[in-house]
Amino acid sequence: MSSSFGARSGAAAGYMMKMPPLADKRTAAEALCSACTGPIYSQGLNTFKVPMAMFEVNRAKVVQSMLEQDPSAKGLILLEGGKQTTRYDTDHEPVFRQESYFHYLFGASQYSDCFGTLSLPDGEATLFVPSYGVDVATVCGPSPDFRYVKDELGLEKVYDVVDLKAFVEREMKRLDEAENEGGLDNEEKKGGGEQVRSKLYLLKGLNTDSGNFATPAFFEGIDKFRDVRDEDSLFRSISESRVFKSCAEIDIMRYTNWVSSMAHVEVMRSAKPGMMEYQLESLFQHHTYTHGGCRHMSYTCICACGPSANILHYGHAGRPNSRLLEEGMIALLDMGAEYNCYASDITCSFPISGSFTDDQKSIYEAVLAAQLKVISMLMPGVSWLDMHREAEREILKGLVKCGVLDDCGKDLDEITEAMLDADVGAIFMPHGLGHFIGIDTHDVGGYSPGKPARSERPGERKLRTARQLEEGMVITVEPGCYFIDPLIDAAMSDERQKHFLTDRVDDFRGFGGVRLEDDVWITSDGCENLTLCPRAIEEVLDVMSGGVWPPASDILPEMKRKWVTCKEGKIEFLDML
Predict the structure, then answer these.
(1) pLDDT (tens digit, 9 = 90+) per residue, 220-271?
(2) Residue 366 CB partners (closer than 8 Å, separation 6+)
(3) Nearest-angstrom CA–CA distance, 272 and 29
(4) Bridge-partner residues for 482, per DSSP?
């Protein structure tokens, strides 16, 4: 056992009185965030300064949620951090990225193989970090100084990971004794019945995007607590807390969006026929790391040009951004950088040759109309399922106007509703309108217990949430229109759909697709678009011909972009005409 870890003396109840109330801790942490004082995370130079108090706010939110579920809750929340892995059977170590739930509570983005605890009800945070022997230290550097880590992360306590078992045993005992010494007997606490025992709260729950489960923390000797394990309460509280972003979290997401938006602009300026798709990926990664300190991408870059854009998640194994860019192609680039584990997710579409053909312009304008329509309607209380239908509606109208779909001699609004009823929208937009975003690109909470279930209709069943929007959520708005041969062929044989399609659809085979994706924060009275990319056709063409960005004036205020830059590590708002 390390010398920094020893038995507490004095009455446990007296110790409990020394901890500031949870609400006071959160208020103090929010003040530190607002002033960006106290410990900070930064990659140096002009990269964004993340106040570590942001994670104190997160911890307070989760503890408060646990207490709202069960006012008598007491014990320890225990999480296990991400592990440093190796590639298959080799000793090659991929770049470490912290496990998302663990990062949300502790902000320990650079420390692998850790554990962390929060005590209930006071919210005291303790981190357990591994130390190394001489052989490992020779290769990887000296073991962390626990006092340095404590100050660096703004935590109450940091110990060696070998102390975890003894700490958990002692804390669980202390919390039980604190109740006994607190002046209320068990009859008063429970209204009759047995003593409320301290619980060990572990993380376990289904990720509705991946189908995988969060794995409960494990250490040798944890079986001792099998009778007081709770694997239900924590997941509900922490996943729902992550849905609603604090002001400090919004600022870091403004930064990741700013960095990624400027990188998209640089790629637009550089792209030309004769390049390879992977060169566009490389340019984006170079900009976000060199100018933004973003070592990680939020997801695998999708650099889909021409027919490649028919594959929604192009860029993965078997499709490694390897097509040659040719005259007349339209590029669909879905790329976003991550900073301190907070994601951005942005898609731009533009003509490789620097000018739109008439058909490219028609599809682009239809997708832009869908995005503008949805953004104009976003506010608390709006159903995301309804927003998906609005996007489909606008895209279908655009396809009627350019002759791909037949109006059957009816009014545009009337025929569009008939197409929606026949699920024609899902032929051309076979994915959901968007998803929550935060520490993960596809962030948690989409189909939480008690929230609307997934639709079974084509298109709608691809939605990653069907919730009503609420203040504090951040969600992507990413309408798209694609010409995917298997879907078109199936529609041509579908009795409900085939009479809507014209021969003109064959002109678009091999076209690829257009998608526009922005990250949008739901505010009390509407929304704010965190993404700052060119969207109007005039903006796109101006940037591609060397025009400045951000522009001197905002010609598309309907996008609700809040123009920012980063100066001396802080977000600075720009005055836009």
Answers:
(1) 999 999 999 999 999 999 999 999 999 999 999 999 999 999 999 999 999 9
(2) 394, 395, 397, 398, 399, 401, 402, 481
(3) 48
(4) 513
